[in-house]
Specification:
Length: about 130
């Protein structure tokens, strides 16, 4: 058996890839409805994955969903019923606007808060752009 045949046999025996190859996969909210309230049970995991403070993300969600709520350790409670589809769409919108770099597409960003304009700064490529919070 020559080298190429052994290599082909090896590739046939390898299991298929289970990941997309992307380092960052957008988080999906785990939602629980309790009466007129909506709970995001994995809120702390989402905040850790996107590297944002829970106060920043909760403020954005309260504003976008036009509701009140509170942040408890590990979860977020919204004072209204929000369908899971809508909540995940708002989360995706936040990722596009306030987390992912538009130049390189990486999530390695942070927000610089300045008086008139807040700026998203990419740590990977150095790009900056103004954002609305």
């Amino acid at each position: 058996m020559d080298y190429n045949q052994m290599l082909d046999n090896l590739y046939v025996k390898l299991p298929p890839k289970k990941t997309t190859g992307e380092r960052f996969e957008p988080p999906v909210a785990s939602i629980l409805m309790q009466g007129n309230k909506t709970l995001i049970t994995n809120f702390d995991v989402i905040c850790q994955k996107i590297r944002r403070k829970p106060e920043e993300l909760s403020k954005f969600l309260f504003k976008e969903l036009a509701t009140r709520g509170n942040v408890a350790p590990g979860r977020l409670t919204l004072d209204t019923k929000v369908p899971p589809r809508v909540l995940n769409e708002k989360l995706t919108y936040y990722l596009d606007q306030c987390v992912l770099c538009r130049e390189c597409g990486k999530p390695d960003t942070h927000i610089v808060y300045a008086a008139p304009v807040n700026t998203l700064v990419c740590e990977a490529c150095g790009a900056t752009r103004p954002i609305r919070l």
